[in-house]
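Deliverable D2.4 — example input (structure tokens):
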């Protein structure tokens, strides 16, 4: 550049205009190569000015060409086109064919960049034609490269590759190293697009080699970017990132802003794929900043689309949509039809995830229209696949299948093997949902075949996982496991962490179904480990839910609850509404099993609320069914029936056959319990009909069992036996051991006598969770029975009696369960087999806990512990001690309560049940407070708060704070802090009932501190929440009606003290209305008195008398002479104030008679005498006035002494 500057200086000084023009052109090129485009353009403009002025046509042409290129690089495509057009004008006059060729090439590139591919190709063809004819080998090479690029953009990859090959051949032959590098890069890109990643890498590496050797920094940067993309496609994200970083380093150093932008975009994509969404967002934003500043519209679009996807993956759907919309706005202005298609597809996906299925479909349809019109076959396939999925989600399975078929048809016709694989996988899923398992398996197999043949490892993994599911649903658990293992091998080998997590979850489920709970837990833990490490929040939530269910099945209910709560916490934090709904359902189930029916119902209600709001129909049905079952267990059969009917209605409307069967069975059971046997039979028969028609053998077995019960209750014993026989036949054939046991028991056949296989009991429900634990009694560990060859018949019989006991327990036949366990103890005594004896005692403890005979339960637990000191604790034992602690606390036997709670702490520590430990600490805190040991009480409450915080168990933390507030003796300020914390937590966990309770306690505390304004605010909030919940009939209420009345009464009192008399009366009136409804005469009396007092204070004497009179009437009804005397006194006072002294004296006399003869209340008597004295004085009878006043004074002196 220095030399060009010197040449230019001399030319300008000497007036050599031609040399000056050439100097500007040379200097401009140097600036361009140094990436100083703006400076280069200034030099070209100066050269153009002189050339035009002096008529230097050749230099004018060259200046136009270079300016066209500069504007093109600066993303001012239209201006670039204008300059190329000017070149063509000159060449037509001058016959400069070389420049004409260059102009055509420039126009070809410009139109291609402007997304006018067809027009771009036409200009490139013209350039090629002239170059070929005139022997311009360099331009011919350039034309081949541009045509290759154009065909690639036009989705004609094979044709594009042919042109790149021709360019490569010519470049190598002529030694055009720069063009050889470009040809290798083009071929690398093309092979990548053709899914031949390895071949693509080889070509990119060749390009990199030449670029590095020749110092082509721009091409080296491009090679790094292309290699990064290739490794990304090959799932080697870390390696891809290394290449992107290298590209970024050169681009930043050399000022290649376009490549810098692209490097940031690619790094954003890589971090996003690596589940580092936040970092990905940062890179996208950097790319966007440059793109906006430099006017790189294409890169700006990519940045917006990338950010949209990142926010969508981060579950910030709304924010993601905003970015898609921004991208779409630019796209439409620029006419980038390909990107418009992609934006519509992404928006469709966002609306679908936001559960706005219909809106999502609209966008997919828009994408499809453009794709079909423009011939974007890849996008057309994607649109069909997405539309298929939306119809599937909308339960229009058949229509969904039609779209999948269309996608598959194009993919097969065009040879798009990757999309063909995806089409088969999607179609298979549709067949599966349509219960056409065999057809689904055929599609999965086809997908697997192509994936293996083409090396699509990701799709091969998915096909194995889906085939595993299919075999599992077909009750071929073992075969399903084999496929899961194959998927796992590939996922681990290829580093597909997401696929590996899925494989572990599915293997866990398979082992769980095979009743290998411990092994299942191991797989869930592995899935959890990866999910946490990789921040796969969705999979982490699922792992917690699955572990929660596994612990439930393993009879560790408390631990199961803890895992479900962790899942719920993540789901709420991340806004994963579907997972939140499922977590509430699982949590509800756990509470139900823990015999906390009310708490379980609250969880089901929350699940129902979200499911209805978000349109999760499957979960809505489950919530209705679970609520129906809970109401049945709570003996509210009619309500249970109503919920099951709602579930049935949705299931029939949506075509969910499995849920329809379950709803019919639940209704059948409910009608039986309601003594409507015939109706119960009808529902069971409907369930049976669907199950047989669709081949659901497990549901068929259950339907026969339920139908058998109905016939038996209807006294059609023979018919019932036939049903049980059919159930037994299917259960034995299919290996449904739980149902087989039930059938034996129904037929009054002892499964022990039928050589019952003790080593093959398995959970057989593959659809709606384990039904093995329908009642709290079902806590016995079947798997406790050792897996060994039984040699001693007596020991074998004892072990079989343990199983029989469990089976009876499951049936709710506690007496027969006890008998079986006692027989097992007897045999264990005879054979001196202490292990069986200890287990039998433990199981007896569980039975007695289940029927709330806690003392007897503990006797058995202690016997078991005495025999086997190493016997593993059972959560049921903890429950027994916990209930005894609670019952003794309620009965005022505080020392015994403390002993039982201490035992809970000991056992919970052994079993690692931290939640029960917290509950026990709260119980201990309460017990110590009752015996006046406030220091110990506070210590236990604070310990409970600390552990609850560690567990992130907000409910228990809130409970501990509430109790701490209650037992702060008279330290009301400290109590308020505890209640405020309880209120804050209740608000965080959206527990409106507890929030209301905290507000109520705050109201009481503020009232005690005489902070009446604050008390009113708290009471009002409590009432407001109660009203809000009452308006939502599904949520219930916070307070019983009587309590609501008392809160209104306290509000009235605080308002009165605070001088808010009108509002005080309103609250008292509300309390009075409630008192009438609930029949609380005393409250009705008090509210009338209170309103009378307020009216009297504001001089509304007539109205005041009415209320006092009403209070008096109620006092007489109650026969409460003290209340009657008080009312007479109040009436006397208001008459005196109203100057009606005669009437006042009458009422005072009545009051005085009552307090002298029937009520021992000196204070009231003193008030009456004083009032009477004042009344006589006002009537002018000073003698009587003095007499009454002196009597009052004497009474007051006597009271003081």
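Example output (designed residues):
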């Amino acid at each position: 550049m220095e030399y060009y500057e010197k040449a230019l200086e001399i030319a300008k000084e000497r007036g050599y205009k031609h040399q000056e023009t050439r100097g500007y052109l040379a200097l401009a090129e140097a600036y361009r190569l140094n990436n100083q485009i703006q400076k280069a353009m200034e030099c070209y403009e100066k050269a153009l000015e002189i050339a035009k002025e002096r008529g230097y046509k050749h230099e004018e042409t060259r200046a136009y060409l270079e300016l066209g290129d500069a504007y093109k690089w600066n993303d001012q495509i239209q201006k670039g086109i204008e300059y190329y057009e000017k070149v063509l004008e000159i060449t037509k006059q001058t016959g400069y064919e070389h420049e004409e060729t260059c102009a055509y090439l420039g126009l070809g590139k410009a139109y291609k960049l402007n997304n006018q591919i067809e027009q771009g190709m036409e200009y490139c063809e013209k350039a090629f034609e002239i170059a070929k004819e005139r022997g311009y080998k360099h331009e011919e090479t350039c034309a081949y490269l541009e045509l290759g690029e154009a065909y690639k953009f036009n989705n004609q990859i094979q044709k594009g590759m042919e042109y790149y090959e021709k360019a490569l051949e010519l470049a190598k032959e002529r030694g055009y190293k720069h063009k050889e590098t470009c040809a290798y890069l083009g071929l690398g890109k093309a092979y990548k697009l053709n899914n031949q990643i390895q071949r693509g890498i080889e070509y990119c590496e060749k390009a990199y080699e030449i670029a590095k050797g020749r110092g082509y920094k721009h091409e080296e940067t491009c090679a790094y970017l292309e290699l990064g993309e290739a490794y990304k496609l090959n799932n080697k994200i870390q390696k891809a990132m290394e290449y992107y970083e290298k590209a970024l380093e050169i681009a930043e150093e050399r000022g290649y802003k376009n490549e810098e932008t692209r490097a940031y975009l690619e790094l954003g994509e890589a971090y996003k794929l690596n589940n580092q969404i936040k970092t990905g967002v940062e890179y996208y934003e950097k790319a966007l900043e440059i793109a906006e500043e430099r006017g790189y519209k294409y890169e700006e679009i990519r940045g917006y689309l990338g950010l949209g996807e990142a926010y969508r993956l981060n579950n910030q759907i709304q924010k993601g949509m905003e970015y898609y919309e921004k991208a779409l706005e630019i796209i439409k202005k620029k006419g980038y039809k390909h990107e418009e298609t992609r934006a519509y597809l992404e928006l469709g996906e966002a609306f679908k995830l936001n559960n706005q299925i219909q809106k999502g479909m609209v966008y997919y349809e828009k994408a499809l229209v453009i794709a079909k019109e423009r011939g974007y076959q890849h996008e057309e396939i994607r649109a069909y696949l997405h539309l298929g999925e939306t119809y599937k989600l909308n339960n229009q399975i058949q229509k969904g299948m039609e779209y999948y078929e269309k996608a598959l048809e194009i993919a097969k016709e065009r040879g798009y093997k990757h999309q063909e694989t995806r089409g088969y996988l999607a179609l298979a899923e549709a067949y599966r949902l349509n219960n056409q398992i065999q057809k689904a398996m055929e599609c999965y197999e086809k997908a697997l075949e192509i994936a293996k043949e083409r090396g699509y490892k990701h799709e091969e993994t998915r096909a194995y996982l889906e085939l595993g599911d299919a075999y599992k649903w077909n009750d071929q658990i073992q075969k399903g496991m084999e496929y899961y293992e194959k998927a796992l091998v590939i996922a681990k080998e290829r580093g597909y962490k997401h696929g590996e997590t899925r494989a572990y979850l599915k293997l866990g489920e398979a082992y769980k179904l095979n009743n290998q709970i411990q092994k299942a837990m191991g797989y869930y833990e592995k899935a959890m480990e990866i999910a946490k490490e990789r921040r796969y929040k969705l999979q982490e939530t699922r792992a917690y839910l699955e572990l929660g269910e596994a612990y439930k099945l393993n009879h560790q209910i408390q631990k199961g609850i803890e895992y479900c709560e962790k899942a719920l916490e993540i789901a709420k934090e991340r806004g994963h509404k579907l997972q939140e709904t499922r977590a509430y359902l699982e949590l509800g189930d756990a509470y139900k099993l823990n015999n906390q029916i009310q708490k379980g119902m609250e969880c089901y209600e929350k699940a129902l609320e979200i499911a209805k709001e978000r349109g999760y129909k499957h979960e809505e049905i489950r919530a209705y069914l679970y609520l129906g079952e809970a109401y049945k267990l709570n003996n509210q059969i009619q309500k249970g029936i109503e919920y099951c009917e709602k579930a049935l209605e949705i299931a029939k409307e949506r075509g969910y056959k499995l849920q329809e069967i379950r709803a019919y069975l639940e209704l059948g059971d409910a009608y039986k319990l309601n003594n409507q046997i015939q109706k119960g039979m009808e529902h069971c028969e409907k369930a049976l009909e669907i199950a047989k028609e669709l081949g659901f053998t497990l549901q068929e077995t259950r339907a026969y069992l339920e139908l058998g019960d109905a016939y038996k209750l209807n006294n059609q014993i023979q018919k019932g036996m036939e049903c049980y026989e059919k159930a037994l036949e299917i259960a034995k054939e299919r290996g449904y051991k739980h149902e087989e046991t039930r059938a034996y028991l129904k037929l009054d056949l002892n499964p022990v006598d039928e050589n019952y296989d003790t080593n093959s009991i398995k959970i057989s429900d593959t659809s709606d969770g384990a039904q093995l634990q329908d009642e709290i009694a079902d806590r016995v560990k079947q798997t406790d029975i050792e897996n060994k060859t039984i040699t001693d018949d007596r020991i074998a019989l004892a072990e079989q009696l343990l199983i029989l006991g469990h089976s009876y327990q499951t049936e709710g036949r506690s007496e027969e369960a006890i008998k079986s366990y006692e027989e097992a103890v007897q045999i264990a005594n005879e054979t001196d087999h202490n292990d069986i004896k200890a287990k039998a005692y433990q199981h007896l403890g569980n039975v007695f806990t289940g029927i709330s005979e806690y003392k007897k339960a503990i006797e058995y637990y202690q016997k078991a512990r005495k025999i086997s000191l190493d016997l593993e604790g059972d959560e049921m034992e903890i429950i027994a001690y916990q209930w005894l602690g609670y019952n003794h606390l309620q009965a005022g036997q505080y020392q015994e309560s403390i002993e039982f709670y201490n035992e809970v702490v000991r056992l919970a520590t052994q079993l690692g049940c931290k939640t029960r430990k917290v509950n026990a600490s709260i119980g201990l805190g309460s017990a110590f407070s009752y015996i006046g040991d406030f220091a110990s009480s506070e210590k236990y409450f604070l310990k409970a708060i600390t552990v609850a915080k560690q567990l992130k168990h907000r409910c228990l933390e809130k409970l501990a704070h509430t109790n701490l507030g209650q037992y702060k003796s008279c330290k009301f300020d400290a109590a308020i802090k505890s209640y405020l914390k309880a209120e804050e937590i209740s608000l965080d966990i959206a527990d409106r009932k507890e929030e209301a309770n905290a507000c109520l306690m705050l109201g009481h505390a503020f009232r005690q501190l005489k902070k009446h304004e604050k008390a009113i605010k708290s009471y009002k909030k409590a009432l407001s929440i109660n009203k809000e919940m009452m308006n939502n009939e599904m949520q219930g209420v916070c307070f019983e009606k009587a309590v609501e009345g008392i809160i209104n009464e306290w509000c009235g009192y605080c308002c009165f003290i605070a001088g808010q008399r009108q509002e005080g009366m309103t609250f008292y009136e509300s309390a009075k209305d409630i008192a009438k409804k609930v029949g609380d005469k005393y409250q009705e009396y008090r509210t009338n008195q209170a309103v009378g007092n307020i009216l009297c204070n504001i001089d509304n004497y007539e109205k005041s008398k009415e209320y006092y009179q009403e209070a008096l009437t109620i006092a007489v009804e109650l026969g409460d002479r003290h209340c009657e005397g008080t009312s007479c006194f109040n009436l006397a006072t208001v008459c005196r104030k109203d100057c009606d002294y005669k009437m006042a004296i009458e009422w005072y006399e009545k009051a005085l008679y009552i307090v002298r003869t029937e009520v021992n209340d000196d204070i009231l008597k003193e008030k009456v005498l004083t009032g009477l004295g004042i009344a006589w004085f006002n009537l002018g009878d000073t003698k009587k006035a003095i007499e009454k006043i002196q009597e009052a004074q004497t009474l007051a002196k006597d009271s003081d002494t």
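The mean pLDDT is 85.
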